[in-house]
Amino acid sequence: MPDIVKKSSFYLFVAIIVFYAVFPFYYAIITSFKTGTAIFDISYWPSFEPGHIWDNYLSVLKSGGKALTWDDVFHFNVSGFPLNFINSVIISTLVVCLALLIAVTASFALSRVRFRGRGLLMMTILSVSMFPQVAVLPGLFEIIRALGLFNKMPALIFSYTIFTLPFTVWVLTTFMRDLPVEIEEAAIVDGASPWTIITKIFLPLLWPALVTTGLLAFIAAWNEFLYALTFTLDNAHRTVPVAISQLTGASDHEIPWGPIMAASVIVTLPLIVLVLIFQRKIIAGLTAGGVKG
Amino acid sequence: MTKIVMQNVRKSFGPVDVIKGVDLEVRDGEFMVFVGPSGCGKSTLLRLIAGLEDITSGTLSFDGQVVNALTPSARGIAMVFQSYALYPHMTVYDNMAFGLKLNGRTPEQVRAAVEKAADLLQIRAYLERLPKQLSGGQRQRVAIGRAIVRDPKVFLFDEPLSNLDAALRVATRIEIAKLHHDMNKTTMIYVTHDQVEAMTLADRICVLRDGLVMQVGTPMELYEKPASTFVAGFIGSPKMNFFSAQYATAFGADTVGVRPEHLTLSSNGSWTGTVIHKENLGSDNYAFIDIGAGGDPIVVRSDDAAGTALGAKVGLTPISPDRVHRFNKGGLPV
Amino acid sequence: MSQSSAVQPAKAMSDLSKERLRSAWLFLAPMCLALLIVAGWPLVRSIWFSLTDTVTDHIGEGDFIGFGNYFRSVTLDSGRVIHSGVLVNPEWWNAVWNTVRFSVISVVSETVLGMAVALALNANFKGRGFVRAAILVPWAIPTIVSAKMWAWMLNDQFGIINDAFLRLHIISEKIAFTATDATSMYAVLAVDIWKTTPFMALLILAGLQLVPGDIYEAALIDGVHPVKTFFKITLPLVRPAVMVAVIFRFMDAMRIFDLVYVLTPNSSATKTMSVIARENMFDFDKLGYGSAMSTLLFLILLISIILYLKIGRVDLTNDGGR
Questions:
Q1: pLDDT above 70 (res B201)
Q2: What is the pTM of this model?
Q3: What is the pLDDT of residues C47-97, one digit of tens each?
Q4: pLDDT below 70 — which residues of chain A?
Q5: Nearest CA in chain B to C6
Q6: Which among C42, C139, C318 is the nearest to A292, CB-wise?
Q7: Are A21 and C43 in contact (CB < 8 Å)?
């Protein structure tokens, strides 16, 4: 096959891949700029109605029935979708911090100290991350009700730990395993205790890994739907995924596609930016658990 | 200035015995070199002395005190690792100060100790740099400096020159020898697979093989009176020539060894053969002779070698009877 | 040569080993405790619930009924025998079938497509970084958002997919992809494949990049046909990475909830085990009955992974070394 044919079919293939990957999001964006009846005109290219481009976004960012202002934010007087956004941010951040805190020391033990039962423990941690979420739902529901946490943020922080903790332990263990043994031995000879080794030697070397792991766990927590759906009752406590799934229009039969797309873009754009910035590290983190030479 | 005594030390990793019963005494202030082929256990033995691995059985004592249970820093040892093992995120100063700060010294004491060691190794100018900004040789000196500041009872080196290029290796070797002299004769144990390093640095050498001590002695003792064919073949470069079976009967032994530098070429001699290869390095001349015994050719280092031609028939003669090493069937001297 | 400190019989342990061992257990304690509270105990409780007739609103008042939720045989006075329980519930088996069908098709598709994408990305070409960034976009988008985006594209009246297919004469009239039983599963598959192929591609790519380039050069010099190179050289070498990726994906696929619930709500053609379990627990208030379903799902996954590991001889922990 002549080279030029090979090369162009390759690039065609690549172009198809890129198109397939990016088009849906592109389409969501151009839909979010359309209002009223323009939505029902099918078009593949952006079309703007001057003066109304941001309508959908403004309707989504309404708090308490009116547009959100910074004043509202600082006086904690937020409701509606902006509140959902804030809920998601707070919950995801706290869950990740909690998981990292617990995981750092656990990973050290799992990666640097040989003890009987280590392999079994690793498999147990892995299997916890494999639990179907619905299989622990009744038990979690009982605990949350008993602790009076139903429809409160701690309920989600509590239940999200079931997947953020095993994940962060797994990935951090893989990263810590890669730190050279001799540096740790030099520290031992210098008289450092395991705690000192972790805090003064390993953590400074590991912080890029911590950022990556934290980011990946953040995305997983941000994305979570089942527990958020089950454990929250009113809009004030909902997170973004649940809120988006329940966006309703003026009447029962009218689905507000415009605002839904706007909300989608608002929620997704920061994630995409973060992922693109950290893409190398993210790929390393994702594959750390899966593929090790 | 510490005397180290090992009595019947054994080390196993699970079912695998790596050190199989070592009895060894390292004298006060001496520079002892552990040498041997890959897998002989020399690094493991060093790590047992350091305390980085547990001793399975047997005792290790420093100045009469059994130290089996003590942590490395409690034993008062310092170690220079093969890959330097410097803390990448700390400056040279912090690398050297780390252990001292952990021990509760005051900042003034720390500064004094670090600067003194830095002066000794001429790295004073690099104190504020990070390891990645230094060359291999400089990093090696920092690694040594980190060990010096601990003012250790015993100084351990784990193949410290392996990562350096040839020229740097020679220069650093000299520095290490100087160091031993400058440091009031602190006891030093040095592990290497390079027998040239062993011969040039050691007060005494310990040759290990398969987890056991083959011979301990000064470099000259090992060179002139090897206790087995193994040691005879290990020490000295190029390797000692071995003659066995019918080629050894004339000397009343099962195996006879003569070093290449102790053979001369003539028209006939104790053995005869054909020149199959020559090497002229300028400083030395080597001839490779096939005497029909199969196996490796006999190597001769001599100025005569330059004059012989490829394919010529030559005779080999030891330059003197006491340069002939005779061994019995078990590889032990006769 | 270098190893971390080993464990010795207690009497021969040095202070160093003891200290490290003690620290290890101290360091592991918070994690073990957290996992016990958040995962271990709830799982046990959930399995317990499956053996009771608990009603969700009155959670403390359920009675133990053994395997009654799973299978119960009742003989009426008239002599008729009625079987009840999850194991004879046709909706349950429909859900199982949906889930298995979904998992197999999605994992196979994602692996094949992922392999193709990975092979493309493994080649050195201009713009490779851009393409790699582009394929991360579907992965980065939250599942719910993906569901909504595709629901919009698949919309029967205003969706562009109907529009495009009509223009290309692939279909003759608009189809409600997400609402029609015949097509709803394919809609779900389409979104899942779109969203997850990048992940598979990246995992496989990582495996591909571990293959040394010299091997390909040697094959080139030997004149081996590229297709043969792929099947005889590349594939066997990437097999470990692919096997791990496949099992992770399969387990994820079997648990699927979000996409099905949001894209095709209340559709018996797509209801998976997770969906029907939750429906019973919280829509029908039958916590005990629903727990039986979720426990069965758990057991199915457990058996699957054990079988897979044993048959595939896959090492997941890479604990072979240190």
A1: yes
A2: 0.84
A3: 999 998 888 888 878 888 888 888 888 888 888 888 888 888 999 999 999
A4: 1, 63-68, 72-78, 248-254, 285-293
A5: B53
A6: C318
A7: no
Interchain contact A165–C (C-beta under 8 A): yes
- Touching A: C residues 86-145, CB under 8 Å: 116-117, 120, 123, 125, 127, 130-145
Asked if B70 and C15 come within 8 Å (Cβ–Cβ), the reply is yes
| B85/A185 touch (CB, cutoff 8 Å), yes or no | yes
In CATH, the number for domain A73-290 is: 1.10.3720.10
Cβ <8 Å between C19 and B53:
no
| Nearest residue to A257 (alpha-carbon basis) of C262, C148, C154, C260 | C148
Q: What is the mean pLDDT of residues C110-120?
A: 92
What is the per-residue pLDDT across B123-140, written as a single tens digit (0 to 9) for each?
A: 999 999 999 999 888 998
Convert the pLDDT of each residue in C193-251 to its tens digit.
Answer: 999 999 899 888 888 888 888 888 888 888 888 888 888 888 888 888 888 888 889 98
CATH, domain range B4-232:
3.40.50.300
ipTM for this model: 0.84
* Chains within contact range of chain A (3+ C-beta pairs < 8 Å): B, C
Cβ pair B57:C5 closer than 8 A: no
Best mutation target, A134, A165, A202, A222, to test chain C (most C CBs within 10 A): A134
pLDDT at A258: 83
C168 touches A: beta carbon within 8 Å: no
Listed by number, the residues of chain B in 56-85 with a beta carbon closer than 8 Å to a beta carbon of chain C are 56-57, 68-72, 74
Correct CATH for B238-327 of 2.40.50.140, 2.120.10.80, 1.10.3720.10, 3.40.50.720: 2.40.50.140
Residue in B78, B82, B83 nearest the CB of A189: B78
Q: Does the structure show a pLDDT above 60 at B65?
A: yes
Ordered DSSP codes for B201-239: H-SEEEEEETTEEEEEE-HHHHHHS-SSHHHHHHSSSSP
Identify the bridge partners of residue B257 per DSSP, sorted by sequence position.
B242, B325
Distance CA B199, CA B193 (A): 11
Q: Write down the domain spans for chain C.
A: 89-312
**Which region among B108-112, C20-24, C168-172 has the lowest average model confidence (pLDDT)?**
C168-172
Q: Is B192 on the interface with C (CB under 8 A)?
A: no
Assigned CATH topology for domain C89-312:
MetI-like fold (1.10.3720)
Contact A142 C158 (CB under 8 A): no
